[in-house]
Amino acid sequence: MDNEHDMLKFLVNDGAFGPVTYVSSKLDNEVDKGTQFASVVSFLVLIVNNGFEDLEIHVVLKRQHVSNEAKDMFNSDIAFKNEVIMYTKILPLLQAESLNLFPKLYCTNQMDSMRCDQQQILTFENLQHCGYMLTKEKIFIDYEHVKIALMKLGQFHGLSYLAKRHHKDTFFKITNELIETKFTKILPEFKEMMRTCMLRGIKPLMEQNKETDILNRVLRKLENLTEVAQLLVKPEEPFSVICHGDFCRNNMFFKYDNSNPSETKFFDLQNSLYTSPAIDTSFFLYMNTTTEMRDKYWDKFLNIYWESFSNTVPNLEFTFAQFMEHFAKRAVYGYLPTCFFLPMSMDIEDMDVEEFSKLPEEVKQRRMLTCAGNAGTKAITDIVEHLLSKHYLHKFLEL
């Protein structure tokens, strides 16, 4: 297909939008395109005719990156398949429509990879024309946004826990189809880049002689990134749930009432996985809260999540104290993607993913070491310091 309009025309003619005919389509320039890393997203207004009148449908067209380098960096083939499994199998089993938490999926050609010139395409409703919007803050969000996001996350996790309880065999059969995308199936050169990012936040504390024994032991354990990632995401009963897998501000829309967030919706389920709830909570809280907010509200945030989760699941099989012990051993997971994405997001120079993926490895590593300068280094070093102060790194070493 030459462009987005040809793709939409193909999908309409293929019946993806029901018994309508294609009239025209145009780019939607009235939306916030947000931050795009793992896929290429276009916003369009589709005009169709149902035999009586023309109708407007505002859609989001999501495609893989063009280059093989970018596809490999984000495990795009697996990621797109995960999202299809979530929408067609798992969300219906969870009865997730009761939460009204995800945008509508109009169509997918994932089931036939030869369609649309072998490009994998997902088409969603555009929530920005339903009163939802991205936060004005591009990285760090305020207390009210964090609160509503954690409340809804707790409910979503709770639904998956209930599905596991009531439909155990079906639940595990389907969830076993999901594949971890971020760390366990990555190229050797990307592992080296991740080690560079991890060391960037740890090295300043070692230079200050802050708990160097613990930090050295953590670094030794992190040398085998694939093994550690598998350890962190390995389900442990009874705690595990279906996680979003990339739960951060970039993948949330909010609706407002007098400038206060009143509703939220989540999107981008490419990295979803049956795993520890710490995978979602730790990444979100480390990626999208400031050092000051963590110092002030950390325990309260975890209580907000827990209350929402436990209120969704009657007769829960474990206590808050047991949950916190489980969380403490896996909280370091939040640092792994954050040490890569946070400085990149803070950098004043936008990064083109296609161009970045084709750079020589030494150039990539140098770029990741200097993203956002001293502010980027301090932001991720503060996270390591928080992990130390909460004894999460000590607990991680017990795994």
Automatic annotation (TrEMBL):
Residues covered by the CHK kinase-like domain: 122-315
Name this polypeptide is given: Putative juvenile hormone-inducible protein
InterPro entries reported in the protein's UniProt record: CHK_kinase-like, EcKL, Kinase-like_dom_sf
Protein species of origin: Panstrongylus lignarius
